[in-house]
Specification:
Layout (H helix, E strand, L loop, with lengths): L2 H33 L17 E7 L6 H9 L8 E7 L5 H13 L5 E5 L6 H11 L5 E4 L10 H5 L8 E8 L8 H23 L11 E4 H6 L10 H11 L3 E10 L7 H28 L4 H12 L3 H20 L3 H30 L3 H4 L3 H10 L1 H12 L33 H21 L6 H22 L17
Parallel strand pairs: 1-2, 1-4, 2-3, 5-7
Antiparallel strand pairs: 4-6, 5-6
Helix pairs in contact: 1-6, 1-11, 1-12, 2-3, 6-12, 6-14, 8-9, 9-10, 9-15, 11-15, 11-16, 14-17, 16-17
């Protein structure tokens, strides 16, 4: 074996082992969740007297959903004299008129609602929240993004958790009003369910740190101030503030039974933009707060879980490296015999991939009666996760090399049913070279699949096909949706209705 071949195999197995470690961590999260399954957060007695609550609604060019958001928030059941609503609008388009009109209409009905517009977007969402907080009246602050429709009992259900004076933030679970729109929205709903039910559920019940998700949660105002306020040196100001607050000793509570319905992106490029922001922001936050977490006097289990939480997105560059090395490593080891190849690869791939299946299977079983019918989406979920690795690797590298970028908000089109359409609406995301790279990798894995078939290396085919479909799907859908002009060319795969 030549030096180049040895180096290729060494790099391949090094990457695969690290990915397997993070795969085993998913098993650990499931274990934590099941071990603490009975540790449901218990609300205290209703606060007496009821405190003043400020609801902040940060907006930026959300013309399709701004009125829906403001109207739904106005129906929240809470004494009007103790409720303040702030519409924090940084918009530069028609959203301004829509939001202002909604605020004026509700103000005439007796609501304490104000419209605050900034012409300077300094700090983006974090800057808007900070500006609103400076003039807010509430002892508690609830936040909703533009794509949410909070239920009327949202405050009444969550506020009693603040009976414990050490509780600084309470997070509700996200719902998905358009999860049945397409294959992409169905996959996103499962991904988000896993994040909330198992990640938040396991960490919170085990006493580890977890994070506010930027929306559908309530903060004790003094906690925000005590932790240093909203800061905008990362793209995930919510994750950043969450860790700073918990390092200060404040408790967070996740309430899975309170669901805040929301709209998930229907467009692949919007989904990628959202994932890019989350991945880049998490690495920025990792660089900012992880040293302080590791140096803190928190228990080892808390620090270890924080490490896995904040470094998880480093897996994406490793996935890219693995994707490139998979074919040459297969060719090099073909002469070693197929049995030896399977003996080494399959256990590692099993740890790295089946852990994903197990993770989301457990999640769906916890919250859906028809969870077995949802298992058919798991292969697509893994494929799309793989297909995102180019997009999210770019995000990780930008964070590592301090490349600054705007807070790119995710477009919302008010998609509430499978008959609604987004084609022809504003805020379409543009694509450049990235989908072409994804397509190239998809073709690369197509060739790898043929090589495995031709040489009878059948045991690796399931893994190779996951990569092949993932890259082809994310690349093709990005390009087609970018250039779609009518309903006939939109890749809208109906999944729940059987269409």
């Amino acid at each position: 074996m030549t030096f180049a071949e040895t180096l290729t195999l060494a790099a391949y197995f090094f990457v695969l082992i690290i990915l397997a470690v993070y795969g085993w961590h998913r098993y650990y999260l499931v274990y934590l969740y099941m071990r603490n399954r009975d540790q449901q957060p218990k609300a205290g007695a209703p606060l007496s007297p009821l405190p003043t609550v400020t609801i902040q609604l940060p907006l930026y060019n959300e013309m399709y959903v701004a009125d829906r958001l403001i109207e739904s928030v106005s129906r929240i059941d809470y004494p009007h004299e103790l409720l303040e609503i702030q519409v924090l609008d940084d918009s530069t388009d028609e959203t301004r008129t829509i939001a202002e009109q909604a605020v004026r209409r509700l103000a005439t009905e007796g609501l304490d609602i104000t419209y605050l517009h900034r012409t300077d977007r300094t700090g983006y969402k974090a800057g808007a929240l900070e500006a609103g907080l400076a003039v807010a009246k509430g002892e508690f602050v609830a936040i909703f993004d533009a794509d949410f429709l909070p239920t009327e009992d949202f405050l009444l259900k969550l506020m009693p958790h603040f009976a414990d004076p050490k509780v600084g933030m309470v997070q509700a679970r996200w719902g998905h009003i358009n999860q049945d729109y397409s294959l992409l929205t169905k996959i996103q709903s499962i991904l988000l369910d896993g994040h909330f039910i198992l990640e938040h559920g396991a960490r919170n019940r085990a006493g580890c740190f977890f994070n506010f998700n930027g929306t559908a949660g309530i903060w004790r105002r003094i906690v925000i101030e005590d932790a240093g306020g909203w800061q905008h040196d990362t793209l995930t100001e919510d994750l950043d503030l969450s860790y700073r607050a918990q390092l200060r000793g404040w408790k967070f509570v996740f309430v899975p039974d309170v669901i805040a319905p929301a709209e998930v992106p229907v467009e692949m490029n919007a989904f990628k933009s959202q994932q890019h922001r989350w991945a880049k922001g998490s690495i920025q936050t990792c660089r900012k707060v992880l040293p302080a977490v590791l140096a803190s006097d928190q228990p080892f289990a808390v620090r270890a879980e924080a490490f896995f939480h904040l470094t998880a997105n480093f897996n994406y560059p490793l996935m890219v490296i693995l994707s490139i090395l998979m074919f040459p490593s297969m060719v090099i080891r073909y002469n070693m015999g197929w049995y030896e190849m399977l003996l080494i690869d399959v256990p590692l791939f099993f740890a790295a991939t089946f852990s994903v299946c197990n993770f989301y299977m457990v999640c769906q079983r916890e919250i859906h009666r028809d969870w077995k019918t949802r298992l058919k989406y798991l292969p697509f979920l893994m494929s799309i996760g793989i297909g995102l690795c180019i997009n999210n690797t770019r995000a990780v590298l930008e964070a590592m090399f301090n490349k600054q970028s705007e807070f790119a908000r995710t477009p919302k089109y008010r998609i509430e049913g499978d008959a609604d359409e987004w084609v022809g609406k504003k805020y379409r995301q543009s694509v450049a070279v990235q989908p072409l790279i994804e397509l190239a990798l998809g073709l690369y894995f197509t060739a790898t699949v043929f090589y495995a078939l031709a040489n009878g290396i059948y045991g690796t085919l399931p893994f190779l096909v996951l990569f092949q479909i993932g890259f082809l799907y994310t690349g093709l859908v990005s390009i087609v949706q970018q250039h779609s002009g009518d309903d006939t060319v939109v890749l809208k795969t109906q999944v729940a209705s059987g269409k």
